[in-house]
Design a protein that fits this description.
256 residues; mainly alpha
Length: 256
C-alpha cells in the first residue's frame, strides 16, 4: 500500500514538474531564436551596375587591409618596436601597458605622417569627393605622398634586393620603382633601424644590471635576484635623464 502511494506521488510530482518546466523551455527557445540576416547585392542589369558592385567589394577589401597599410607604410613599425625594447630593457613587463604603448605609437604616427595625410586630403580625397577627378587618379595622388615617405626612409640595399627578387627591370627614376617592391623594402629598413635604436637604448640598462650583479656576488648575496635590485636604479636613471622626452624627440626627428 505504501509503495502504491509513493509511486502515485512520484508520478504526480514528475507530471507537475514537466508542466512547470515545459513552458519555460519553450519561452527560452523563443527568446534565444535569432533572426535571419542576409547581405546580398542585387543582380546587375548593365555593365555600370556590375562595375559599381565590384567597386563596393574592392572598397570592403581595402577597409580590411587598412590596419596592415597603417602598420607597414607609415612610421608605426619603428616606433612600436622601440617602445617594446625599452620596456624589456628596463625590466618592467607591463608598465606602460600594451594599450598605452600602442596608443602612443598611433598618435606619434599621426603626428609624423600629418604632412603626407594633409597632402592626400588636398590632392586626392577632396577632389574625388567633389567629382573633379576619377577614382584611378585619386588613388595615384593618394599613393604619391606615401611613396615619397617610404623612399626617404628606405635603404638602397634593401630596395635593390626586392627589385632583383621581383625580376623587375632596373628603374631609372624613383617613379619607376614598383610599389610592391618598395613596401617590403621599407619594412625591412624600418626593422633594422628600430633594432639599432633598441640596441643603443639597451646598453646603459645592461651596464646597470652587470654592476648590480657583480656587487651582489662580491657581497655573497647569491640568492637575491639582481633584477629586483637593479630595477629601481634603472627607473631612476630613466627619469633623471628625462628619457621619454629624449626618446620621443629622437624618434620623431629620425623621420625628418
Amino acid at each position: 500500500m505504501k509503495r502504491n502511494i509513493i509511486g502515485r506521488a512520484s508520478l504526480i510530482t514528475a507530471v507537475a514538474a514537466t508542466a512547470l518546466v515545459a513552458p519555460s523551455l519553450s519561452f527560452g527557445a523563443d527568446a534565444l531564436s535569432l533572426p535571419n540576416v542576409s547581405l546580398s547585392l542585387g543582380g546587375a542589369s548593365s555593365p555600370q551596375g556590375l562595375a559599381t558592385a565590384i567597386q563596393i567589394i574592392l572598397l570592403m577589401t581595402v577597409l580590411t587591409l587598412a590596419p596592415a597599410i597603417l602598420l607597414l607604410m607609415t612610421s608605426f613599425t619603428r616606433i612600436v618596436i622601440v617602445f617594446s625594447i625599452l620596456r624589456q630593457a628596463i625590466g618592467v613587463q607591463q608598465a606602460p601597458p600594451n594599450q598605452v604603448v600602442i596608443g602612443l605609437s598611433l598618435f606619434l604616427t599621426f603626428f609624423i605622417m600629418s604632412p603626407a595625410f594633409n597632402t592626400i586630403n588636398q590632392r586626392a580625397l577632396k577632389p574625388y569627393m567633389e567629382g573633379a577627378i576619377n577614382q584611378e587618379l585619386a588613388l595615384n595622388n593618394a599613393l604619391a605622398p606615401l611613396r615619397e615617405f617610404m623612399l626617404r626612409n628606405t635603404r638602397e640595399k634593401d630596395l635593390d634586393l626586392f627589385i632583383k627578387l621581383s625580376k623587375s627591370p632596373a628603374p631609372h627614376t624613383k617613379a619607376d620603382i614598383p610599389t610592391l617592391a618598395l613596401i617590403p623594402a621599407f619594412v625591412t629598413s624600418e626593422l633594422k633601424t628600430a633594432f639599432q635604436i633598441g640596441f643603443l637604448i639597451y646598453l646603459p640598462f645592461l651596464v646597470i644590471d652587470m654592476v648590480v650583479a657583480s656587487v651582489l656576488m662580491s657581497m655573497g648575496m647569491m640568492m637575491l635576484p639582481p633584477v629586483m635590485i637593479s630595477l629601481p636604479f634603472k627607473l631612476m636613471l630613466f627619469v633623471l635623464v628625462d628619457g621619454w622626452y629624449l626618446l620621443v624627440g629622437s624618434l620623431v626627428q629620425s623621420f625628418s
